[in-house]
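Could you help me review a protein record that somebody else here produced? Do not assume that whoever made the record got everything right. The record follows directly below this note.
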Amino acid sequence: MAETAGSTPDRLRTGGDVVVETLATLGVTHVFGIPGQHALGLFDAIRRSELTFISSRVENNSAFGADGFSRVTGQVGVLFLSTGPGALTALGALQEAHASAIPLLVITSQVPRSGIGGTRNGLLHQLDDQQRSAQNVTKSTVVVRDAAHIPSAVADAWALAQTVPAGPTWVEIAQDVLLEPTSVPPVRSSVTSVPPRPPRAELIVEASVALAAAARPVILAGGGVRRSAGGQAALIRLAEALDAPVVSTVGGKGAIDFAHPLSAGSWIEDRYTTELLEDADVLLAVGTALGEVTGNYFSLAPRGQLIQIDADPRVLGSNHPALGIHADAALALDALASRIAEVDSGTSDRARGSRVAADLRKRVEARLAQQDVAGELGLISDLRAAIPADAHTFWDMTIAGYWAWSAWDPQSGGFHSAQGSGGLGFAFPAAVAAALGCGRRTFAVSGDGGAMYSIAELASARQHDADVTWLIVDDGGYGILREYMTTAFGHAAATELARPDFAALVRAFDVPAYEATLETVGATVAQTFRTSGPAVVIVSTVLKMFKPT
């Protein structure tokens, strides 16, 4: 019979239905994951819903996929996992989302209620405390033992995932709760709240006075600027008000267009950039911890005043003494720009910003021209010419990716890497999901070592007909570790890899494979952007890093 208010449908609803209904009220469109025995109630319910399910072949890649989807759509990435091995396998990818403040909602099954809490009754996939396993890589964890608790638990976790600093949240639901019939009324609405994080007014006053009086202000824009709604416009407004050069971190690439006169690029591993940051009489660091990579491996030693803005209070002053402002980047930058207009003394030479930015980039280019890195520079240049300006690009932890950290101009597309936690295997599964989310071809880069973490997702890319181009740079091993060990010890160990015939393996998944050289890779990649569905380009070459400074 037709369902009306207060009526009971012919089919009994389950806890799994309550989960899926709640997600629908929150505006969720896609769910990532892999079925498992204890999670079957979730997957039975999603089959009857309007939600789109994207399957992966490994749970870690499902989590990378939800991460990539969130980065390009702005939505919370939703992940369904099964108990025990399935849930644990995803933790490495969740570390990346946690470190990079990507909002994910993880819904995982649990053993039946009778087995939760340390009981050892021999249930399949049983852990002593699955919830505790997730606590290092999530913002919150909750265990649901009653279907009546599902709507609030899911909605609260969804909201918390987006509350700055964003990140993964974890809801686990007992198997019997997911499967049992429930009397919970159909979920038609959700009550949620995502609170803003404005700055304290007195901190804005103090920071704006210092910035307005600065003779050599510099802004360091981190990933927090990109992730903050309105952050890019607010950054440019303030930078132009100060005429301050802007250095982008790896995560901050795209916070300011490289073509903007005040952009000093993102060569954060270069001593010239480090010197610019050190020489600032006021350095404004926004959405960055000034950590290992951004601080040029902790060689950065600011000599002027440091003002640090971050949504995570633990970041403030964590590496250098600072005037810390706990706030969302856009709200703080807008407040500073408005205040600067009121207190600007007008005594500084504010025409210097664009000159400083241009001079820094020229000096970096001149230093690189003295090194034997023409092939590496040519690769980045050819790829940039081949890939549309608005394409999202995803980079694994590989030598080509480390070059991209500094040299890649994202133009109007998003630049995404696993630099937050540094794990392998991020690029391809994230790019597959991103393509499905944004409806445009994406681009991923992996080394041969990292590619083996993701190779099974060729089946997912083919199954979902994702428009994605994957470049595999095959150098016969873990190239960056080979370079590090040779430099440190005079020889490398455990870095050389037996690997497959990548082209043949790719074709076995019914995916086109193209073999290219450094001279032809640009044209080959460009060709794939005129096709539909997944495509893989393989280049066999040994790249090297630019000399450290």
Remarks:
- Residues 1-9 have pLDDT under 50 and may be disordered.
- Residues 163 and 194 are 5 Å apart (CA to CA).
